């Protein structure tokens, strides 16, 4: 038997997460049975969705949700031989016994020079979220002007780069001057620090006086209230996240954009990346091709040590990361 470290959700979050919400435990993983494999985590992801989804998917005392890149170290399943690498929703644990359900092989021709951790970032769920949000929800076209907030994060930074690949003008909002500089490196046409501008409305108007065809929304709250009136007629909004609201103990209220959306005939659509799971293999290969061609840069914010999972998670929610936040075991 193998001893596994796990982080459990000791109690559900009320407001911003605290150390006391988490508890590190040890559990014994049994020997894999016929059809099962034993996985050893190499990299674990921390993502904004974990904050709202944990209440829906984890009971108090249960293992915290999350995805990891893992190596098969024992196998009684011919589909997953010893030594292969997979992406799995195994939660915050160092070792997992799995029957293979929900495990996905890394691309068969994953290049040796590309870190496998990117399967949790631009060549994984965040990259797919960016791609499907742009193509399937927004129907992005060459020549469109796109606004994206949380633009230096895992999804936002990929959104902006794909939009540039597609011949669009991109405006990005982020939370520090260092992140603004990063967005400029990525080729964003305009980028600003929303925390230091005197007027969000004015900076949005200055960045695109004629308005925005598309808005990739990751933040919600007051930002949306200001951004939606800047949309062009028949503008499209992809509602991916609302990180500004995740830690609220009292729901935010108004102002409400209904008249603006009616008068401008805007379309807003919420989406979850799993809707297009049947397209993942083709989409991942496109993302990998852009990476290898130098068109897609993939910065990672790496925290060392499984014991630092909660700190990495809370840091990500506070915006400490530039690019994808991961934990290296």
TrEMBL record:
Its EC number is 1.3.1.48, 1.3.1.74. CDD domains: leukotriene_B4_DH_like (cd08294). Pfam families: ADH_N_2 (PF16884), ADH_zinc_N (PF00107). It catalyses: 13,14-dihydro-15-oxo-PGF2alpha + NADP(+) = 15-oxoprostaglandin F2alpha + NADPH + H(+); hexanal + NADP(+) = (E)-hex-2-enal + NADPH + H(+); 4-hydroxynonanal + NADP(+) = (E)-4-hydroxynon-2-enal + NADPH + H(+); leukotriene B4 + NADP(+) = 12-oxo-leukotriene B4 + NADPH + H(+). Its main location: cytoplasm. Monomer or homodimer. Belongs to the NADP-dependent oxidoreductase L4BD family. This is Prostaglandin reductase 1. It comes from Salmo salar. The lineage of its organism: Eukaryota, Metazoa, Chordata, Craniata, Vertebrata. The gene is LOC106577824.
């Amino acid at each position: 038997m193998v001893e596994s470290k796990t982080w459990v959700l000791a109690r559900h979050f009320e407001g911003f997460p605290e150390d006391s919400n988490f508890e590190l435990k040890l559990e014994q993983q049994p020997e894999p049975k016929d059809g099962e494999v034993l996985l050893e985590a190499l990299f674990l992801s921390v993502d904004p969705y974990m904050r709202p989804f944990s209440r829906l998917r984890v009971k108090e005392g249960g293992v915290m949700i999350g995805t990891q890149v893992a190596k098969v170290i024992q196998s009684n399943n011919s589909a997953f031989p010893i030594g292969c690498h997979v992406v799995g929703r195994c939660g915050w644990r160092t070792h997992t016994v799995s029957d293979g359900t929900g495990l996905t092989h890394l691309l068969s021709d994953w290049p040796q020079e590309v870190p496998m951790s990117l399967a949790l970032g631009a060549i994984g769920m965040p990259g797919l979220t960016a791609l499907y949000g742009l193509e399937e929800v927004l129907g992005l076209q060459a020549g469109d002007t796109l606004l994206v907030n949380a633009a230096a994060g895992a999804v936002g930074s990929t959104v902006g780069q794909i939009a540039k690949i597609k011949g669009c003008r991109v405006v990005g909002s982020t939370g520090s001057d260092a992140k603004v500089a990063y967005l400029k490196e990525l080729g964003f046409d305009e980028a600003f620090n929303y925390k230091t501008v005197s007027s969000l409305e004015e900076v949005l108007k200055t960045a695109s006086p004629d308005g925005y065809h598309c808005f990739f929304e990751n933040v919600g709250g007051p930002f949306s209230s200001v951004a939606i009136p800047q949309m062009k007629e028949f503008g499209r909004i992809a509602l991916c996240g609302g990180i500004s609201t995740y830690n609220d103990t009292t729901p935010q209220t108004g102002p409400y954009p209904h008249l603006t959306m009616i008068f401008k005939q805007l379309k807003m659509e919420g989406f979850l990346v799993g809707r297009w799971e049947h397209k993942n293999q083709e989409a991942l290969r496109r993302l990998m091709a852009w990476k290898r061609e130098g068109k897609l840069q993939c910065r990672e914010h790496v925290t060392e040590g499984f014991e630092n999972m909660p700190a990495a998670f809370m840091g990500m929610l506070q915006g400490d990361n530039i690019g994808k936040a991961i934990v290296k075991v």
